[in-house]
Amino acid sequence: MWVSRGIAFGYLSVMMTSLAHAQPAAPQAAIGTTIETAIVLPHIADEFHGVAAEHTYIAAHFPEWHIEYQTRLAQNDREYDQLGMIKPDRTKVPIFFDITDWFGK
C-alpha cells in the first residue's frame, strides 16, 4: 500500500512540475486577419467573380461590419486584397483574401 501511494505521489509530482513549466501556446490569428491567414475562395474563374465572392463572404461572415477601403498587395509572389473593415463598435480590422489564382483574369 505504501509503495502504491509513493508511486502515485511521484507521478503526481512529475505531472505538476511539467504543467508548471509548460509554455502557453502562441495565440493564433483569426482567419483572414493577416496575410499568413488570408482567406482563399475556391473555384473563382476571374476578377469579376472573385470580387463578388469576397463581398458575399463578408456579408455571410461579418454581416454588421462595413468596408472602409480595399487595396491590393503583393508579397512573396502572391497577390492579396486587403479590405479595411469597421466593426459595429467602430473598431477597425483588416481582412485579407489571397487572390493569386484569379487576379488579372
Task: Detail the topology: elements first, then pairings.
Layout: H1 2-21, H2 47-61, E1 66-75, E2 78-86, E3 92-98
Antiparallel strand pairs: 1-2, 2-3
Please characterize this protein's 3D structure.
With 105 residues, the chain is α+β, with helices and mostly antiparallel strands. The model is unreliable at 6-20 (pLDDT under 50). It has two helices and three strands. The protein has a domain at 29-98. The chain starts with a helix and ends in a 7-residue tail after the last strand. Helix content is 33%, strand content 25%. It has helices at 2-21, 47-61, and strands at 66-75, 78-86, 92-98. Strand 1 (66-75) and strand 2 form a beta hairpin. A three-stranded antiparallel β-sheet has the order 1-2-3, with no helix packed on it. It is globular, with a radius of gyration of 23 Å.
